[in-house]
């Protein structure tokens, strides 16, 4: 039974301060992951103030590409730096986490369709490791390099690995309605389009609206919840908003 958990960049970093980790939250999420000891767990993390800051500065998004190698390396380099921090906090809790850098394992075609290699992820799981992927840059036919969000990676992994459970831990306790109440379940984009917005912080990949779109396209249900509910999700409960 494969579980995919995304740690939102807005959770593990201080999204308003360039390249600043939220170390306390990252440490407590790492402890929750270690305590849950879930079999076949894949972790994905977002960009937060590492990836999004550089992507916004260089003018690259999920659809607008760049060809300047310095810019590409600034975005990719910031994400590998954040990935090293995430790995080190997981290692501190004895989680057998290993890095997978999507930049070298993915491509988009001219229609923007993503292909992501997942054999290495599946083999890591078979060998008892916890693969840790992250939002990154991706080569994109006709565009140079665009941004690949952790949410797209979650959706691609969910399908390729036939994941049984998919969870996105963000700063919010779920998808919120106009009164800031958690919406328990979303089955279609149109039901909630009015309340879905972009991120409060610098974000080049579309915030909550993009997340809901990606998750609705998945074959299995997914959950959006806040940091306090990670243990509940890993224990098999259904916290926050169920999508799909
Ligand atoms: N209806 C909504 N319900 C909840 N959050 C919403 C809604 N509309 C917009 N948002 C915004 O979406 C944000 C979550 O998206 P964001 O992309 O910042 O999260 P993340 O995945 O944790 O971060 P990252 O993209 O860096 O990985 C919330 O912090 C909130 O500002
Ligand atoms: C900005 C970069 C490079 C990654 C974005 O990933 P996300 O935070 O999951 O949307």
Automatic annotation (TrEMBL):
Keywords noted in UniProt: ATP-binding, Isoprene biosynthesis, Kinase, Nucleotide-binding, Transferase
EC numbers: 2.7.4.26
Origin organism lineage: Archaea, Methanobacteriati, Methanobacteriota, Stenosarchaea group, Halobacteria
Annotated positions for site Transition state stabilizer: 15
PANTHER family assigned: GLUTAMATE 5-KINASE, ISOPENTENYL PHOSPHATE KINASE
Reactions catalysed, as given in the entry: isopentenyl phosphate + ATP = isopentenyl diphosphate + ADP
Keyword Kinase: yes
Binding-site residues for ATP, renumbered to this chain: 6-10, 48, 207, 211
Xref: InterPro entries: AceGlu_kinase-like_sf (IPR036393), Asp/Glu/Uridylate_kinase (IPR001048), Fosfomycin_R_FomA-type (IPR024192)
Domain of life: Archaea
Subunit relationships: Homodimer.
Protein name: Isopentenyl phosphate kinase
Annotated binding of substrate, by residue: 47, 52, 150
Gene Ontology cellular-component annotations: cytosol
Domain Aspartate/glutamate/uridylate kinase residue range list: 1-217
Family per similarity comment: Belongs to the isopentenyl phosphate kinase family.
General function of this protein: Catalyzes the phosphorylation of isopentenyl phosphate (IP) to isopentenyl diphosphate (IPP). Functions in an alternate mevalonate (MVA) pathway leading to IPP, a key precursor for the biosynthesis of isoprenoid compounds such as archaeal membrane lipids.
GO molecular function, one term: ATP binding
GO biological process per UniProt: terpenoid biosynthetic process
